[in-house]
Amino acid sequence: MLKALGKNIVVLKGLGLILAGYLRLVRFTSRVTYDPPDMPERLHTIGPIVAALWHGQHLMVPFAKPAGMPFAVLISRHRDGEINASACRNFDVIPTRGSGGRPDQSERKGGAGGLRSLIRFLSDGVSVCMTADVPKVARVAGHGIIALARLSQKAIVPIAVISKRHHIFSSWDRATIGLPFSHLVVAMGEPITVGRDLDADQLEAIRKELETQLDLLHERSYHRVGEVDPGRDLGTGQRS
Question: What residues does each domain of the chain span?
Answer without folding.
Answer: 2-227
